């Protein structure tokens, strides 16, 4: 995987990676929003990234497996858990990345390690992810103490074969991002690099019972149907975050 870099917009990170993981049964749900709605929620050091003039909000449920630090094995019962995030897209120094408003996980240890190590807004949640055939039934209810409400209940499934995104397409804009940004605790930002192969995207459909992921940031999702993509599995390597230069 480390040798396959032709799909990246910029070179993969130098030095040893810190964390390995796999993502399974992932659904991208994306809605276009006015960039001005997000500007005040993003660090000044970062630019809200847009496609055809629109910023994008994403709700992304999936399951993690095999999460492990470099040189250590995965641990059953700790390394595998569901996760769901609320995100948008930003860039700095010409590098497009992901900005997370929240990440909910069904693993208290992972929540606390990610908060301490990556500075990401992780929260405890009661979650389940069950796959029967091609259909994934997913439930997440945030339980983190004194945290705002966040909840998702629904079922989703792929509806087509794998289609790799092409450079410049909306699919590439929404998915092919090889870093994340987070606060550095001093008013600036840190960048955490990741590496993986090109996303194996499939068109999808979703049946939503409850979707209350944006209340926490004071936004309502557009009434239009979301743009949907499904991925069955993606193996990922991550590097420790570094502060951006002033």
Describe this structure in words.
The chain has 246 residues and is mainly β. It has three helices and 13 strands, in the order βαββββαβββαβββββ. The protein has a seven-stranded mixed β-barrel with strand order 1-3-4-5-9-10-12. α2 (108-118) links the parallel β5 (95-105) and β6.
Chain-wise SSE layout:
Blueprint: E1 19-33, H1 36-39, E2 47-48, E3 55-69, E4 81-92, E5 95-105, H2 108-118, E6 122-132, E7 135-142, E8 151-158, H3 170-175, E9 179-183, E10 189-195, E11 204-212, E12 227-238, E13 242-243
InterPro entries: ADC_dom_sf (IPR023375), DUF2071 (IPR018644)
Pfam family, one: DUF2071
Organism: Rubrobacter radiotolerans
Number of helices: 3
Strand order of the largest sheet: 1-3-4-5-9-10-12
Poorly predicted tracts of residues: none
Q: Write down the overall mean pLDDT.
A: 95
What is the share of helical residues? under 10%
- Tell me how many strands there are: 13
DSSP strand (E) fraction?
over 45%
Largest sheet: 7 strands, mixed, barrel
Quote the distance from N terminus to C terminus. Answer: 32 Å
Structural class: mainly beta
Pfam families: DUF2071
Protein name: DUF2071 domain-containing protein
């Amino acid at each position: 995987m480390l040798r396959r870099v032709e799909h990246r917009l910029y070179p993969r990170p130098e030095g040893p990676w810190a964390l390995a993981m796999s993502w399974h049964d992932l659904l991208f749900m994306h809605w276009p929003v006015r960039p001005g709605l997000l500007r005040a929620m993003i660090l000044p050091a970062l630019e809200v990234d847009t496609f055809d003039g629109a910023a994008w909000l994403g709700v992304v449920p999936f399951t993690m497996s095999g999460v492990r630090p470099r040189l250590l094995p995965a641990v059953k019962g700790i390394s595998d858990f569901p996760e769901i995030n609320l995100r948008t897209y930003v860039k700095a120094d010409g590098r497009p990345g992901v900005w997370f408003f929240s990440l909910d996980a069904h693993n208290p240890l992972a929540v606390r390690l990610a908060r301490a190590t990556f500075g990401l807004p992780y929260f405890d949640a009661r979650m389940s992810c069950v796959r029967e055939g091609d259909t994934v039934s997913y439930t997440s209810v945030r339980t983190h103490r004194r945290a705002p409400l966040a909840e998702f209940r629904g079922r989703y499934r792929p509806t087509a074969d794998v289609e790799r995104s092409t450079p410049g397409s909306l699919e590439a804009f929404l998915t092919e991002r090889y870093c994340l940004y987070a606060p550095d605790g001093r008013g600036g930002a840190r960048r955490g690099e990741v590496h993986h192969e090109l996303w194996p995207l499939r068109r999808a459909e979703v049946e939503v019972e409850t979707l209350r992921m944006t209340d926490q940031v004071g936004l309502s999702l557009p009434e239009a149907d979301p743009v949907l993509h499904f991925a069955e599995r993606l193996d990922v390597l991550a590097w420790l975050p570094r502060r951006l230069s002033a």
